[in-house]
Specification:
By secondary structure, the chain is of the alpha/beta class. Helices cover 42% and strands 19% of the residues. Strands 1, 2, 3, 4, 5, 6, 7, 8, 9 and 10 form a ten-stranded mixed β-sheet that branches.
């Protein structure tokens, strides 16, 4: 007896997709980092990618695609094939784009979806150690006595580190000049060379330089002190209650990526981020390795979009074309 092929095309497509997802991955995965190489995001992404390669049985290749406050790399992934082979490492900056960029070429909520959060870290305010600034009070006093003389760096216009400086200006009523860089490494080099006054930056980038006395940390931007730098006060306790800017990273995929692929990647991330090796390597950079469900991370992204929209509106910031 011969059976007719009665399976509808849509159902057949779904079955084919499921089979493909079950075999995932069968080739290298590109992990796009939307900032320049050599900065704090690289310090945790590269060992993470190595462990993910071992877990998935295929190479996970880190590719830096910086520029435009993470817009270039983020847009690239948002428009990539939804097959799990092109992923994005997020920074907080991506959640600022929807409110600060008038003509964003992609929709963050519609075009990208969470795989898992990856890390949580502390933002530190560091200054040129040659300046007579040892705390936030000194910084504000110096800025008021020397209008526009202080310069603050960031890893790009419109990013969280840029807006942290703008928020500090607004909160303290001071004038500082913003100087954008392509990454944290060149900005910190300029601080060490006395070409830049200060920067809000991830603790991951600061620890080695701080320990060597090459930069001076004066405050942390979290609401609580960091156990890694317990003697450094928070900006909030330095006279600016509620001041908070945190660092965090996670992995996003194009929104139409099959759920089975998202789940497979999430399960691999959970195992990798729970490994003692990764926890230790992250901790040395002042970062906590954490994970969660795709839904939790997607919700976190949406909440951050709302939070930063309020800051963008308060400082009247609009990203230039």
């Amino acid at each position: 007896m011969k059976f007719k092929h009665w399976l509808p095309a849509v159902a057949l497509s779904a079955v084919t997709g499921l089979v493909g997802a079950q075999n995932f991955p069968v080739k290298p995965i590109r992990l796009i980092v939307p900032v320049a190489a050599g900065g704090p995001v690289d310090l945790i992404t590269r060992p993470f990618a190595e462990k993910m390669s071992e877990q998935l049985g295929q190479p996970m290749l880190v590719e830096n695609m910086g520029g435009a406050g993470t817009l270039i790399g983020s847009d690239h992934v948002a428009k990539s094939a939804p097959d799990g082979y092109t992923l994005l490492v997020t920074t907080v900056a991506i959640t600022i784009l929807p409110s600060s960029y008038p003509k964003l070429p992609f929709d963050l909520v519609r075009d990208l979806t969470g795989v898992s959060v990856m890390s949580k870290g502390t933002i530190v305010v560091v200054v040129d150690p040659k300046l007579p600034i040892r705390n936030i009070k000194d910084m504000v006093a110096y800025a008021k006595a020397n209008p526009a003389k202080l310069t603050f760096g960031s890893t790009g216009i419109g990013g969280s580190l840029h807006l942290a400086g703008e928020l500090m200006k607004m909160s303290a009523g001071i004038d500082m000049t913003h100087i954008p860089y392509k990454g944290a490494a060149p900005a910190l080099t300029d601080i060490m060379g006395s070409h830049l006054s200060l920067i809000f930056v991830s603790m991951a980038a600061v620890l080695p330089l701080s320990n060597a006395g090459k930069v001076r940390p004066i405050a942390v931007a979290s609401l609580a002190r960091s156990p890694v730098m317990p003697d450094i006060p928070t900006v909030a306790e330095s006279g600016y209650p509620g001041f908070e800017v945190t660092a965090g990273n996670g992995v996003l995929a194009p929104s139409k990526t099959p759920r089975a692929v998202i789940n497979h990647l999430n399960q691999a991330m959970v195992k990798v981020l729970a490994s003692p090796d990764i926890k230790e390597r992250f901790a040395k950079s002042g970062v906590d390795a954490i994970s969660g469900t795709p839904e939790e991370f997607t919700t976190d992204i949406r909440n951050e979009i709302t939070r930063w929209a309020k800051v963008v509106k308060a400082i009247n910031f609009v990203q230039q074309e």
